[in-house]
């Protein structure tokens, strides 16, 4: 029987690449995004594109009513936030937590009952390599991802009793995603004058990284997590993330 994977945040980046990766391997894919756009993908009967805002409870309820049974949930939807913590409004910090942390937890809770009753299923939570090292100018963002790391480790133990697996995929830095394209507020607006000298080499390193993560790296790491037979929890994705994981 063909299995079904539901992926959040598929309008671009890691989510879109993951949807295409699983479609190319014969899976049924439910791709979700805030504004459903079927034209982003090639035509196939194995793909459904559904609207979802992980910060709105009613949107999550509607999604699962439409989606039906799923074998794998990938919580990929996320937003970025880079800048001096001193300058970051609490309203922005709450936005980060609502999407990156509470939204992931809400999706996990929504899918757990069907997987527990079936005694099978896999939940993949996509975090970040910021959980593997100490990254300046990303304190609040790191907190949202570290929370999911601890949450997932506990949930994995809790749901293993019912045959449900929980995995973490930890992408490295991809210049076209996360910190840049998904940032709510440009970093330039979150750097008071006193931070200029401190921030300059950090931002230059972001602009010219020695190692980066490709979207395909994350899609493959998610594939490996889904098919893991060694009870691994964490799957770093991308050369930079793998290097950090080995060093930690």
Q: What does the model show?
A:
By secondary structure, the protein is an alpha/beta fold. The protein has a single domain (4-247), classed as NAD(P)-binding Rossmann-like Domain (Rossmann fold). It contains seven helices and seven strands; from the N terminus they run βαββαβαβαβααβα. It has a seven-stranded parallel β-sheet with strand order 3-2-1-4-5-6-7, sandwiched between helices. Helix 1 packs across helix 6 (215-226) and helix 3 (90-118) packs parallel to helix 4 (139-160). It is globular, with a radius of gyration of 18 Å. The model has no long low-confidence stretch (mean pLDDT 94).
Please write out the topology:
Layout: E1 4-7, H1 13-23, E2 28-33, E3 47-51, H2 57-67, E4 72-75, H3 90-118, E5 122-126, H4 139-160, E6 165-171, H5 196-207, H6 215-226, E7 234-237, H7 239-247
Parallel strand pairs: 1-2, 1-4, 2-3, 4-5, 5-6, 6-7
What composes the largest sheet? Answer: 7 strands, parallel
Principal-axis shape equals globular
> What is the residue-mean pLDDT, rounded to a whole number?
94
Order of helices and strands: EHEEHEHEHEHHEH
Largest sheet: spatial strand order:
3-2-1-4-5-6-7
Instruction: Give the DSSP E fraction (strand runs of 2 or more residues).
Output: 5-15%
At the first level of CATH, what is the class? Alpha Beta
* Cα radius of gyration in angstroms: 18 Å
- How many H/I helical runs? 7
CATH architecture: 3-Layer(aba) Sandwich
CATH superfamily: NAD(P)-binding Rossmann-like Domain
Secondary structure class reads alpha/beta
What's the count of strands?
7
How far the N terminus sits from the C terminus, by CA atoms, comes to 40 Å
Task: Give the low-pLDDT segments.
Answer: none
CATH fold category name: Rossmann fold
Write down the domain tally.
1
Helix content: 40-55%
């Amino acid at each position: 029987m063909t299995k079904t994977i539901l992926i959040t945040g598929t309008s671009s980046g890691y989510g879109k690449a993951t949807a295409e990766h699983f479609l190319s391997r014969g899976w049924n894919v439910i791709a979700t995004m805030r504004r459903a756009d079927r034209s982003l993908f090639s035509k196939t009967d194995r793909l459904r594109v559904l609207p979802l805002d992980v910060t709105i409870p009613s949107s999550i309820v509607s999604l699962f009513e439409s989606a039906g049974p799923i074998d794998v949930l990938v919580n990929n939807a996320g937003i970025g936030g880079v800048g001096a913590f001193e300058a970051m409004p609490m309203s922005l910090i709450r936005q980060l937590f609502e999407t990156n942390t509470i939204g992931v937890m809400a999706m996990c809770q929504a899918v757990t009952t069907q997987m527990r009753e079936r005694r099978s299923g896999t939940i993949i939570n996509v975090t970040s390599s910021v959980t593997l090292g100490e990254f300046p100018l990303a304190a609040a963002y790191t907190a949202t991802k570290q929370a999911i790391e601890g949450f997932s480790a506990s949930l994995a133990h809790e749901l293993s009793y019912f045959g449900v697996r929980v995995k973490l995929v930890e992408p490295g830095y991809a210049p076209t995603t996360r910190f840049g394209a998904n940032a709510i507020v440009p970093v330039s607006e979150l750097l008071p004058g006193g931070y200029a000298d401190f921030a300059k080499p950090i931002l230059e390193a972001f602009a010219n990284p020695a190692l980066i993560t490709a979207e395909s790296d994350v899609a493959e790491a998610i594939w490996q997590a889904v098919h893991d037979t060694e009870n691994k929890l964490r799957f770093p994705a991308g050369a930079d993330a793998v290097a950090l994981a080995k060093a930690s």
